[in-house]
Amino acid sequence: MREELSEDELLEKVTTSEYKYGFTTDIESDKIQKGLNEDTVRLISSKKNEPEWMLEYRLKAFDIWKEMDEPNWANINYPKPNYQDIIYYAAPKQKKKLDSLDDLDPELKKTFDKLGISLNEQKRLSGVAMDIVVDSVSVATSFKDKLAELGIIFCPISDAIKEHPELVKKYLGTVVPTRDNFFSALNSAVFSDGSFCYIPKGVRCPMELSTYFRINEAGTGQFERTLLIADEDSYVSYLEGCTAPQRDENQLHAAVVELIALDKAEIKYSTVQNWYPGDENGVGGVFNFVTKRGVCHKNSKISWTQVETGSAVTWKYPSCILKGDNSIGEFFSVAITNNLQQADTGTKMVHLGKNSKSTIIAKGICAGKSNGSYRGLVQIAKGAKNSRNFSQCDSLLMGDKCGSHTFPYIEVKNSSSQVEHEATTSKIGEDQIFYCNQRGIGTEEAIALIVNGYCKDVLNQLPMEFAVEAQKLLEISLEGSVG
Amino acid sequence: MLKIENLKASIEEAKILNGIDLSVNAGEVHAIMGPNGSGKSTLSAVIAGNESYEVESGSIIFDGEDLLELDPDQRAHKGVFLSFQYPVEIPGISVSNFLKAAISEKRKQLGLDPISAKDLLGKMREKMELLNMKKGYLSRNMNEGFSGGEKKRNEIFQMAMLEPKLAILDETDSGLDIDALKIVANGVNKLKNKNNATIVITHYQRLLDYIVPDYVHVLHNGRIIKSGSKELALELEEKGYDWITKEADKKWD
Q: Domain ranges in chain A?
């Protein structure tokens, strides 16, 4: 007989599956001193040659942040980062401003090849326009010119601040105000880059827009800021992916994403999050504290889809403010935790407009000694007559050392609205595995198959290329685990 | 093809099989009958390699190879198929995707080229016809929301697709009405040839009107207590099991 593994041994095996994006790139970096004070904020702003109004925005945010406390209501446990021990700005040294991706530093290019992002391939397939952010800066954006022909602006936010100040001023901080929470205030003070996107009235963006985030430098935090505006009657599908090197210390990632869907606009925002999760003993890994929120005006729609497999700790609630009548918010999520990973994730659907609708499908998968929580708020205001929400939260447990929790909060303030909530918890059954085995499907493949089936409703929401990547990622994340 | 000698097996300390001897040759159909709790389903589970059961002694030789040395999926690759008494649901996985996974894996293990999507679909259509399956069946999720009869037909459909050397049908007739039973039996008969063999496990003689066995074995307390030709099944139908089980109990007491 082949190596016969008990359940414990199989679970043990999970912990040996390696994080394949854990390498570092040896590239000269321009970074500032550790620590955070007013001078740090001024230094970041001056490094980016920012206008005065942006510096003021940052300084105000810094003052607000100093007065705030780190939240501790989430179902997660982690050593609080020492905010004076973090480098707030690091940028790969580029010889000159890039005209095209071909001018990219060869070391960086190699990095992207290893990450499976072939830039030439991207160009040829022309399916995806990509912005790439390494540590604190955007290093390359593809298809900028082609998109510009349609009036679409897709560029690093640091460029947008200089080139499109009217748009940035009008929308920045309107969906996630600086004082929204501890991490949004911190981000507002020190963010260094991120993506900016504007789709003009009536335009359907012809390709997927994508940003790839990579933390490379040791001891740095990544604070990116994304601002996406879909003007009236426009459509855009946006993807983001993220990885980080394997390091023994925890790295902080505190991003803010703001989406604005004006009347009749539609935004589809997909994330495959694969930050380094730490090793099997819980050493290292990224702290992922992210605020993502979108506002929907009349007859508009925002869809969040996320596949969360990485990070040591995840604290993230992509939300929709359904401000306009007949607006629609959707949240589709698969969150996998393994080893000692912890995730407290979910969504908020705030119904303000009449006939607004929201759908929440959240699938949690817990293996090893990990802990996964779904936390969601469905809030229906008095004026949001005839609103509807449907929520489904499922958890799949592998082994008997992991935990899964569901914290649904529901507040309904009128009687014409309808809220439905369904929740299930299940284990992968030995009978399911034996059934697959009997048909010739090995145990590892059987688990991958069963997990994929379980996540199908969410994976179906992802754009094609991403869905394939996400499926592979699920398999890697769960290699060897049997419940 | 299959040779079982003095097979003893237990589950959680309870002894279920107490020394089974059985020989099955290519081209044959064997029926295994017996009252509830006699060990029929355990025998099929042990042949297929279900690890819930502990094999204490004895051997199962299949095509000259010791089956007990192989994992369940490896046994499947060698051509052992079990039609489950209670087929399991696999939510979110369509029948076609499931079979694609099963067939690809088998071909890979046997060193064969992968089957093209077109050929696979063509074959599925052909076998669907054989079993009177409805349109849209392939995109339904494995056994999810299937009626009892649909589940059993789905088992035989998989058997048709996987073309096993040895098919074990565990209570395939339970939960089937007479029309469905005829369809299933007809399917099994059409799949029969001189190179494969079938073991039919059943309570009732009814199925054996349609799948005619070459040999009938009676299982009781984990032993085969009587073997005979198809007439034995008719005799059992008429007289029940008591007359032989009592005799056997005397012998083994």
A: 7-477
